[in-house]
Amino acid sequence: MVSIRKQAVLAVEGGTKTVTGGAPAWPISGAQEVKWMTEVVKSGKWSWLGQHERAFCEEYSRFIGSTYTVGLANGTVTLQCALQAVGVVPGDEVLVPGMTWCATAQAAMDIGANVVFVDIDPETLAIDPASIEKAITRRTKAIIPVHLYGCMCDMDAIMKIARKHKLKVVEDVAHQHGSQWKGKGAGAIGDAGSFSFQQSKVLTCGEGGAVTTNDVDVYKTVFALKQVGWAPKDPKKSWFDNLAPANRYGHNYRLNEMQAVLLRGGLSRLAAQTALREQRATQFRKGLEAIGGPLRVARRDPRITRQAYYALTCYYDPAKSGGVNKHAFAHALAAEGCSMGGPYWPVYRTPLLNLYDRTSPIPFRDLKKMQDYKHLKLPNTERCVEETCLLLGHAHLLGRAAYINQLLAAVRKVSDNLPAVKRAWEKKSKK
């Protein structure tokens, strides 16, 4: 007997689209931000070190569980300043996962460090502790674990390696504002944490960033680096009557009051949004398990006690796909109204960061001391891009339960009709 499900015509072949609902628009704002923003505009006190910036830094420290927070202009300079504050100097090696946004590597390169790319876990996309251990040399100074998309790094293993080799750890938490490892906030585990508040992030002010730390010296150094060389003498006192020249090579990487207003409003909603995303992620995971097709949610380490989601990381298993590659599967899903994207390019392959262009610092360094990026191959990194990783953006996880069920119905329909998916993809590829 022919399955009724298999008789459904895929949307990619002219059938009816499965998903009729939609994800909530992002970003979200509220009346409180409008009120505060109006007050700031009328006050004429738009920048720097205003009351909203100070309030946000204190509120964010409480949310993350760090002693200190410094607001900065974006999530790239946060990495630069954090690395400098923990002691990275030109010529030092910094270990970076091959799968991350290009700014993670660029920030280290721009302060004179040599980046060594290491491979990742094939399912969670987190930096692989065993690969870290193999990459350490006498020049290694720091590790940047990137809590990417919807999975945290193994911070127990990473901190153990760091202590063993006397290395610094700067967490890149651009994707996971509010994640917790054994009850401790991402960004408050290593020596410093770097956050991005760019437009698409789960906490956003359009552009912005923050560094979190429990080390007062790191705090003062980051503050001076962003505040044109001035740092607070006593972190507990008011900034304005408490600043002194820090004898640092400072920059202007300030956060302004309008950014801080948006961040305070977003932060007031973030805990509830994170809880809802976790519920929807669990619903999606259980739904995929019931379907039993090639797609599943990436495993969650039981030591993660709260998981924030920039995106829900899913693993596409080629062994269960009937010869249908992930691009064909995603194409058919999109036609049904369930849009899932792929991960970043490997950093050492991305056309957004030509490491050997004359605008890059790499050609002007001693290439004998650097990793050979042109011939580098990290198998897990490259396989996740080409074959195994699909992502569901965080806004979808704020949708109603009925909407998630529609997404799951789309996955079931596509999974039950893999020969038709393959046929449609081959037809598209011939055009």
Average pLDDT works out at 96
CATH superfamily annotation of the domain at 31-265: Type I PLP-dependent aspartate aminotransferase-like (Major domain)
CATH class placement of the domain at 31-265: Alpha Beta
Number of strands: 15
Helix content: 25-40%
Question: Based on helices, strands and strand pairing, what is the structural class?
Answer: alpha/beta
Q: Regions with pLDDT < 50 over 5+ consecutive residues?
A: 1-5
Number of helices: 12
The separation of the N and C termini measures 35 Å
Tell me which oligomeric state these chains represent: single chain
What is the succession of H and E elements?
HHEHEHEHEHEEEEEHEEHEEEHHEHH
Overall body shape: globular
The strand order across the widest sheet is 1-9-8-5-4-2-3
- CATH architecture title of the domain at 31-265: 3-Layer(aba) Sandwich
Stated plainly, the CATH topology of the domain at 31-265 is called Aspartate Aminotransferase, domain 2
Largest sheet: 7 strands, mixed
